[in-house]
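Team,

Forwarding the record for the chain on the shared tracking sheet. I've put the sequence and predicted structure together so nobody has to dig through attachments.
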Amino acid sequence: MKKKIGSALVVGSGISGIRSSLDLAEQGYQVTLIDRAPHMGGILTQLDYQFPTDHCGMCKMLPLVERDASSQYCLRKGLFHENIDIMLSTELV
């Protein structure tokens, strides 16, 4: 783990929010990821299997995420990184 250098708030846990959170966490930031939905993934979770490999859309992101500290398990089951705090069913006011 790298030394924590600051903190960041990422609003939205769609594929862009997940990717941004992972990138920031790997750079050493303490990340808080919030989403108003009760689940992560955004619209991508509505897609089933995609051509040509029949992987889900979230699984297609995994080869891009070659990280030591992040989980390489299916992102539908959860995102795990020691520098990321996830707050679902949360709105920013």
